[in-house]
Amino acid sequence: MPIGLVVPKDESQILRGFTTHDENHPYKKWIETYASTDFEDNALQIEELLDKLSVSLIGEELEIIVKLYQQAIGLEV
């Protein structure tokens, strides 16, 4: 299973909704960074690279990498 398939792709749209009505939102800058298309493009590139690097992994190794990646993404968002 490609690693990129385990992460939902609509977080940026959800994040954008938090600041559209509040210019003084305390996390506005952070949200704009994580909701930007540049950030999303970079994340897609990283997922593609991880998919290529994980081709040789088997079973338990791949499960561990997927879990670590999901945890890392969860901590980022």
Summary keywords:
77 residues, mainly alpha, elongated
Provide an overview of this structure.
This protein is mainly alpha-helical. The chain is built from 4 helices and no strands. The longest helix is centred in the C-terminal third of the chain and has 18 residues, at 59-76. Helix content is 68%, strand content 0%. The protein has one domain. The relative contact order is 0.18. The protein has helices spanning 11-19, 28-35, 37-53, 59-76. The protein is elongated. The model has no long low-confidence stretch (mean pLDDT 77). It starts with 10 loop residues before the first helix and ends with a helix.
Number of helices: 4
State the secondary-structure class.
mainly alpha
What is the domain tally? 1
Outline:
elongated
The multimeric state of the shown protein is single chain
| Content of β-strand | under 5%
**From N to C, what is the helix and strand string?**
HHHH
Terminal-residue CA separation: 22 Å
As residue ranges, the low-confidence spans are none
Major sheet details: none
Rg over CA atoms, rounded to whole Å, is: 15 Å
- The percent of residues in helical segments reads 55-70%
Average pLDDT for all residues: 77
Number of DSSP strands?
0
List the helices and strands and how they pair.
Blueprint: H1 11-19, H2 28-35, H3 37-53, H4 59-76
In brief, what are we looking at here?
With 77 residues, the protein is mainly alpha-helical. Helix content is 68%, strand content 0%.
